[in-house]
Amino acid sequence: MQLTRFSRGLSDHQIKIAFIMPTMILLILMNIFPLLWSLYLSFHRYRASMPNRPAKFIGVQNYARLLSDPEVWGYFRTTAYFVIVAVVAQFLIGFGLALLLNREFRYKGFITTLILLPMMLSPVVVGLFWRFLFASDSSGLINYFLTPLLNLFNAQPIRWTTDPKIAMIAVVIVDTWMWSPFMMLISLAGLSAVPKYLYEAADVDRASGWFKFRWITLPMVSPLLLIALLFRTMDAFKMFDIVYVLTREGGPGTVTETVSMNLYKLAFRNFNTGKACAMAYILLIIIVALSNIYVKYLNKVKGEA
CA angle, corner 106, sides to 101 and 112, nearest 5? Predict the structure, then answer.
């Protein structure tokens, strides 16, 4: 009886609030509070290894030291190189596979599922798998299959993850292998949504294949392509696990040490928590700025489409 009276006393709005509040509280505790706490620590000198020592306010010194450090700019250049090469390669391969799969043929579903398998694996598993393939000794399968070609040119086995000139290319290959299916999936969804009557009308006018691709396919698919590029660019900037597993923490030296890898070392090796938080916010600002550029261009493309 009391429960009935209580339920009658609540309005629909109050019931909705009662159901939403637990989720909102959990969201604040798990996401918003750490975000604000890390922002607070970025303006302080603080080490997580010394919790009894109070954080000392130093203003923007953490940011100034990071932005004036040539090594930090080197990490950003490494990250930018990785992002540009990996995302462009994933876009070209993914969109190319989508164009090939955008037709009816036997075993299409099975082949598409096989191509999508890499993106379903854990990045740590992918890193370990490719570290085995890239091994420079006789256990490395890639060098094993390249042995006849290497012997022909009297060349040494390729040191994929230990040669400073090749290590970043190896990381790009692994990330491209893993995430090209994502670009393919988004592109395939866009290609499948293009109305068939547009191509039929173009065929009536005897339009060439390039004309149909340039003036029908690209304008209709470009919004989805930009969304896929946005997600991959954001994720590539934060890439950590593949580098950590494949090259053993950014080696050889600092050739493959991205900003995320350096951030990990600052926070969990040097325990320089304040400086690590500042680095994280610099990375966040760059990602937000790039996202705004993508979104602005996306709105323009949607308007043209």
Answer: 40
Residue 113 domain flag: yes
CB 190 within 8 A of CB 99: no
Distance CA 280, CA 287 (A): 11
Quick: pLDDT tens for 200-256.
888 888 888 888 888 888 888 988 899 999 999 999 988 888 999 998 877 788 899
- Kindly provide the residue ranges of all beta strands, DSSP E only, lying in 38-98, ordered along the sequence: 44-45, 56-57
- Residue 184: inside a domain, yes or no? yes
Report the CATH number that the domain containing residue 143 is assigned in CATH. Answer: 1.10.3720.10
Burial class (CB in 10 A: 0-12, 13-18, 19+), 236: buried
What residues contact residue 305 under an 8 Å CB cut-off, 6+ apart?
Answer: 219, 220, 222, 223
**Overall domain count for the chain:** 1
Is the peptide bond prior to 252 cis by the omega test (within 30 degrees of 0)? yes
Indicate the pTM of the whole model: 0.86
Q: Which two structure tokens, joined as six digits, stand for 294?
A: 């993508």
